[in-house]
Specification:
This protein is α/β, with parallel strands linked by helices. It contains 16 helices and 13 strands. The chain has 2 domains: 127 residues, NAD(P)-binding Rossmann-like Domain (Rossmann fold, 3-Layer(aba) Sandwich), CATH 3.40.50.720; 176 residues, NAD(P)-binding Rossmann-like Domain (Rossmann fold, 3-Layer(aba) Sandwich). α13 links the parallel β9 and β10. 37% of the residues are buried.
Length: 411
């Protein structure tokens, strides 16, 4: 049983309509509704009557100072405490700063009307947008932070069919593992972008460099592809919150701050690359392919496209946008502007354009017909923020090609 206070979302999911794009999710939800394994409500009392274990999955967005905003967590804890009718295990699924389990305990104890027992556990989620269903059923590991034997028994039963390593620890460590994991992934991305910059400066081959270090089993090939930087709802806010955790405990966090700084500069580097070929962007028509922060999602939160398009508008360019899924979400996040056009057809979006910027590696773009693309453009210039093309092949097709890691005077 799922509880949701937003009536529009509740109405959609209750009828099997999913308000986000996530492959396979809508089918799975509808199958579960039909088999009566899944139901929805807007009443916390319904959940407390129904369940012994309650997973807290609310948002913990980034606050103005970089801290995680725990107001939704607090609100859930108060609702549960005021209506608690018997023992419950509350499981933090949301990404929360270390020590949040103690805060939850204190809130619960403050608002409890009777002396009713409860436990707090932490089982952080590691689902990648666009791959969430596969990740849920085939996790690399499950982190289980518990403080009582009853919590351990309940979670053992829930996760008994998951054939993966199960790491049992305390709630504080489980809370920290989530931030530590995302901080490390962000560091790998920013490190690869730093490597791309040195390749641009020296003429070294970025592809061979990435292959050379990625084959080292201690490093691996994941998250070391240079590009326009990380975005989405997790890494940016989690890195900021992790920095704050170090600050609160007076521990040096210079490495994390530099990871964040490198990432923030990547969208600006796209504009710099564009202006190295087109110095004055005023009245130029620029196509942007890819508005979502990654493929297979419609999520544009912290997407590089927001900053790149904003900068193009500042430079008085006209921007033609295309994305297979994220156009509507981008329109909601971006103030309406007469200089922005949206297209359903990727090739029509580049018609009479002076340049094409690629910001998301959607499969549609990987199979681009270069001849058709060139015929529609005023100027055959591609600024590839994801490195989806092989420079040699695209240059043979007559394009000027700019990508991270390529020495400018070799383009």
């Amino acid at each position: 049983m799922c509880v949701e206070s937003n009536q529009a979302i509740l109405s959609d999911v209750s009828s099997g309509k999913i308000p986000i794009f996530e492959p396979e999710l809508e089918t799975l939800v509808n199958q579960s509704i039909e088999s009566k394994k899944l139901q929805f409500t807007d009443q916390i009392k319904d959940v407390l009557e129904f369940a012994e274990v309650i997973f807290i999955c609310v948002g913990t967005p980034q606050g103005e100072t970089g801290k995680a905003d725990l107001s939704q967590i607090e609100s859930v804890a108060i609702d549960i405490a005021e209506n608690l009718n018997g023992y419950k295990l509350l499981v933090e699924k949301s990404t929360v700063p270390v020590g949040t389990h103690i805060r939850l305990k204190n809130t619960m104890s403050t608002y409890l009307k009777d002396n009713i027992g409860f436990d707090i556990a932490c089982v952080p989620e590691f689902l990648r947008e666009g791959n969430a269903i596969k990740d849920f059923f085939n996790p690399d590991r499950v982190i289980l932070g518990v403080e009582s034997e009853n919590s351990r028994q309940l979670l053992t039963d829930i996760y008994r069919k998951f054939e993966c390593p199960k790491i049992w620890t305390n709630p504080a460590t489980a809370e920290l593992i989530k931030y530590a994991s995302n901080g490390f992934l962000a560091m790998k991305i920013s490190y690869s972008n730093m490597l791309a910059d040195i390749c641009e400066a020296t003429g070294a081959d970025i592809d061979s460099l990435i292959e050379g270090i990625g084959q080292d089993s201690r490093i691996g090939k994941a998250f070391i592809n240079p590009g326009v930087g990380y975005g989405g709802s997790c890494l940016p806010k989690d890195v900021s919150a992790f920095i704050d955790i170090f600050d609160q405990n007076n521990v040096n966090n210079g490495l994390l701050k530099e990871v964040d700084s490198i990432n923030r500069l990547r969208p600006h580097r796209i504009i710099t690359k564009l202006k190295s070929s087109i110095q004055n962007l005023a009245n130029k028509r620029i196509a942007v392919w890819g508005l979502a922060f990654k493929p297979n999602t419609d999520d544009v939160r912290n997407a590089p496209s927001l900053e790149v398009v904003s900068k193009l508008i500042e430079e008085k360019a006209t921007v033609n946008c295309h994305d297979p899924q994220a156009t509507n979400q981008f329109k909601k996040a971006f103030n309406q502007n007469s200089n922005i056009n949206f297209y359903d057809d990727m090739y029509e979006s580049v018609r009479e354009c002076d340049a094409l910027i690629i910001l998301t590696e959607w499969p549609d773009y990987l199979s681009t017909k270069l001849g058709e693309l060139k015929d529609k453009m005023n100027n055959p210039l591609i600024v590839d923020g994801r490195g989806i093309f092989k420079p040699s092949e695209i240059q043979k097709s007559g394009f000027e090609y700019k990508a991270f890691g390529l020495k400018e005077n070799n383009n």
